[in-house]
Design a protein that fits this description.
This protein has 457 residues and is α/β, with parallel strands linked by helices. Helix content is 30%, strand content 26%. It contains 15 helices and 22 strands. The model has no long low-confidence stretch (mean pLDDT 86). Pfam families: TrkA_C, TrkA_N. This is Trk system potassium uptake protein TrkA. Residues 1-122, 231-347 form the RCK N-terminal domain. Residues 142-226, 367-452 form the RCK C-terminal domain. Keywords: Ion transport, NAD, Potassium, Potassium transport, Transport.
Amino acid sequence: MKIIILGAGQVGGTLAEHLAHEENEITVVDTDAKKLRELHTRLDIRTVTGAGSYPMVLRQAGCEDADMLIAVTNSDEVNMIACQVAYTLFRTPTKIARVRATAYLTRKGLFAHEAVPIDVLISPEQVVTDHIRRLIEHPGALQVLEFAGGQVQLVAVKAFYGGPLVGQELGFLRRHMPSVDTRVAAIYRRNRPIIPRGDTVIEADDEVFFIADRRDIRAVMSELRRLERDFRRVIIAGGGNIGERLAEHLEHSHQVKIVEHSLERCTQLSERLDRTVVLHGSATSKRLLEEENIEDCDIFCALTNDDEVNIMSSMLAKRMGAKKVLTLINNAAYVDLVQGGEIDIAISPQQATIGSLLTHVRRGDIVNVHSLRRGAAEAIEAIAHGDQQSSKVVGRAIGEIDLPRGTTIGAVVRGKDVLIAHDDVVIQSGDHIILFVIDKRRIRDVERLFQVGLTFF
């Protein structure tokens, strides 16, 4: 595919990196020549220096015959105008834009072909807020991903000493929990992936990705680690867009406090939020945390725009007695560095956002993509189409499908039924299939599996 990315920031740069390794023709546009030089040195891509909303710059980037425009600059207005220009002058088939401001997102009918022609809207703040919300709903999980409208969840947990399944073969799980159907999609041991088989033994500290009907998730988690009690008391450091949205979502079911250093922003938050306690001060202030009884806090979420403040306030909160700390980190290099020590969960906003962008880039009928392990692996939801002659999957049992190396099928969703993947499950047309791919180089092969042959048409 010929793809133009506007914006060489963290999201644009990470996206270019993902797509350049997948045989796409990528052009990145930005006003910052230094950023473009750095990207060009690392990746096999074209770069164009200039404002992404200017018709001349878009023509120079090859918009006339581009398949897709992805506008992820820091300006909502530039992203929106770029999509308008691409549609009006170049008839670009697919236009994706990052739009942050709620003032735009809440206006019905604004983003349509007769108004602002954007095919797919990406709101990073909403994506990250949903990501954090799911983690708070599942205490003990490192990652919680939803598929098929939330019917199925893929959850990553760390196996702990004392968990009933630690030291046991995976086959034991089915015998031990006959009423719960689940499948372990992948195991990461000392950062290396293991494709699970029935005789694979789970060790303490393994990162285990398992898939199940959302109603069975808690039962399976209890096999891998001691179940943690529900989070009730939440302290949020940072009252920006993500902090505000999270508080808004949690305040009717949890006790929520927000710590915000800007007095003006504190005033806005206290007017907009109903039950959240808004505190003016610094999240790195030991005195403030003491006064707010940090030792009674179930989860401390550091969500400011400053990585250093997030890391330092999280470490301080943990040492002062917070049960769990969750930290937002923009610099991808820091994420692996800090997670697992005093910081329980580190979240990279770029990685959370990339998945929603990749969904629209994948070939075949791909409806959901989640980027995992800092982009090393992917969880994909694909829809099977065709018949036995035209499709490589329809009419075949899972055990007969020639899956690319490092790929496992976790579950099949048929209407309202969730079928955990066993070798004898036969795929039907219209099934939603959830796959786990530990080797990104195999993505093209996975896409080909779900592309229908011409005989179908």
